[in-house]
Amino acid sequence: MGTVNSTLAAGPWDGFKTVWASFEFNPQCNSSRGCTHVFKGVVYHERNYFTKSDVVIKKQHRIAKLGDWKLYIYRCTTGQRLASKFIRHLQNNHNISQYKVRFVKPIEAIIDEWSSFTAIVARFLKFKLGKDEALLIEERLRGKFVTFVTDCGSGINREIAVLAAFAHFTYHESGGELVVCNLQGVEDQCVFTLTNPVIHSKDGNYGDTDRGADGIDEFFQHHVCTVLCSNLSRPSGDYTELISNQELPPPYEELFPDGPPPVP
């Protein structure tokens, strides 16, 4: 044990070949599922103390090995790939260009040194610290952290119609193989930055939160389509009665009262 928490060099990340992280002694919070501890920290770019970025360091409750974060990273990269296609879909089919959806790009890093103080915190919170333990580095999100669309398709309010349509779009774009949901993160000037999504897939390849075809069906039982879902495919089955009993989706003019700006 030492005096600081730090990782070995990892990368590439954020345009840099290698970075390494230093982070606080005690976790700021735990994940909603209670299996991840989140620390505030900074990364230094290629051992340069004058070039750094604010990040969070995530630690699994158990001692993770290199590769144990693979599915977490895979969900984020899958979400980003589909988000890029969705932005083009909004521009080409709805003449909307002001909204952006992006996912963080996390990387794994190996612990270099745990501080003695964190060892005390770990005993109190009943988690273990491991030598050569694998941690996750991702950018620190600024602003109010919100779950905009849950893993079963519910939304917090009518202002998240864009993200609800994105979740629906992922089903359509994947040919009905999956749906990206549990869309959580922050919004700043129509840019949604998201982290740690849930992906339900027919093959069940996206980790413990992937509920397979049942998860996809449950999503569409709660999802209410808007005009942004026009021409997007849905699973076979009749959900008309269920949808008609929910609050009607807002009209296009209410979603975008000033009208969509022209595509640049």
Structure, explained:
There is one protein chain. Helix content is 26%, strand content 28%. The chain has two domains: 99 residues, no CATH class; 143 residues, MHCK/EF2 kinase (Protein kinase-like fold), CATH 3.20.200. The chain has a six-stranded antiparallel beta barrel. It has a four-stranded mixed β-sheet with strand order 6-12-11-9. A two-stranded antiparallel sheet has the order 10-13. Helix 1 packs across helix 3. It has 264 residues and is α+β, with helices and mostly antiparallel strands. The longest helix is centred in the N-terminal third of the chain and has 25 residues. It has six helices and 13 strands.
Give the gist of this structure:
The chain has 264 residues and is of the alpha+beta class.
List keywords for this structure.
six-stranded antiparallel barrel, four-stranded mixed beta sheet, 264 residues, Protein kinase-like fold, single chain, 26% helix, 2 domains
